[in-house]
Specification:
162 residues, mainly alpha, 0% strand
């Protein structure tokens, strides 16, 4: 697959981050930084975003690096909001949205890299502009929007009960 040592490490940590996020979504309806799966997502996504800065297929700073910096900032702000733990509903909504958005953005390069590499010898996509990548990202974007609405409604109901 032509991955460097850093690329292999980045990929393994990224897979752990995605798995932790999915577990958190299934168990709690959100990436919950007070739970182990949420903490694992936070830490491994941070490492994945930072290691991505040392990887470049095309040489130099590229759009993938911009994604990495943006994802890092989203997770950092969400972590800060989580640590702050203010009673503010807006802070909780923002924290949930930022973590979900970071997860969605993480899937953009993941889909691109996976579809242009797997299966070996006959990848699903020929290049990043292949329609299968765009269609997959559209489905994931719709799932992100639906999930964000679900999280908002669920969280609003929790705040009403208090």
């Amino acid at each position: 697959m032509g991955l460097s040592g850093l690329g292999i490490f980045h990929t393994i940590i990224g897979i752990i981050a995605i798995a932790a996020a999915i577990i958190s979504f299934v168990r709690f309806g959100k990436i919950d930084l007070t739970q182990m799966s949420g903490k694992i997502y936070c830490y491994t996504t941070t490492v994945t975003a930072l290691t991505a800065l040392g990887i470049s297929k095309h040489g130099g700073f590229n759009p993938g690096h911009i994604f990495s910096v943006f994802i890092f900032v989203l997770v950092l702000v969400a972590f800060w909001l989580s640590v702050k733990r203010s009673a503010s509903e807006k802070a909780r909504y923002t924290e949930n949205f930022l973590l979900s958005f970071s997860f969605f953005l993480s899937l953009v390069p993941t889909v691109n890299e996976t579809f242009t590499r797997v299966p070996l010898g006959h990848p699903l996509a020929k290049n990043p502009t292949d329609p299968i990548i765009a269609k997959t990202l559209l489905v994931l974007f719709i799932a992100f929007i639906a999930g964000s609405i679900y999280q908002y409604i669920k969280q609003r109901n929790v705040f009403k009960i208090r």
